[in-house]
């Protein structure tokens, strides 16, 4: 899933930098929340890719496991964007 830096409904080209987040459902509530997030990402947050934001993740977090294991994730991006 792609997470928008600010608002998932924003269509500003400068805010097109999204990061990856892997979400797993650990129970039926998590599965339903994952369906809600996916649906809203496609219907409300689609700008080149379906996106959610932190507010949606807060609203539908119950029963979900979040993994940030990709190079395009939030932590690796913040480390690589800083000058050494």
**Low-confidence parts, pLDDT < 50 over ≥5 residues?**
76-84
Q: Would you tell me the structural class of the helices and strands?
A: alpha+beta
The rough form would be described as globular
> Overall mean pLDDT score?
78
CA distance, first residue to last residue: 30 Å
How would you characterize the largest beta sheet?
3 strands, mixed
Q: What's the quaternary structure here? A: single chain
The Rg value, from CA coordinates, equals 13 Å
The total count of strands amounts to 5
Provide a count of the helices: 3
Summarize the helix and strand pattern as letters: EEEHEHEH
Strand order of the largest sheet: 2-1-4
Q: What is the helix content?
A: 25-40%
Approximate strand percentage? 15-25%
Q: Notable features of this structure?
A:
three-stranded mixed sheet; 35% helix; alpha+beta; 84 residues; globular; two-stranded antiparallel sheet; disordered C terminus
Tell me what you see in this structure.
It is a single chain. With 84 residues, the chain is α+β, with helices and mostly antiparallel strands. The longest helix has 16 residues, at 28-43. It has helices spanning 28-43, 54-59, 74-80, and strands at residues 2-3, 19-20, 22-25, 51-52, 64-67. 35% of the residues lie in helices and 17% in strands. The termini are far apart.
């Amino acid at each position: 899933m792609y997470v928008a830096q600010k608002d998932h409904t924003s269509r500003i080209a400068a805010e097109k930098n999204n990061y990856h987040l892997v979400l797993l459902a650990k129970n039926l509530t998590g599965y339903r929340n994952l369906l809600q997030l996916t649906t809203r990402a496609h219907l409300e947050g689609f700008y080149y890719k379906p996106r959610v934001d932190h507010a949606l993740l807060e609203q539908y977090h119950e029963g979900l496991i979040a993994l940030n294991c990709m190079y395009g994730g939030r932590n690796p991006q913040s480390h690589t964007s800083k000058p050494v």
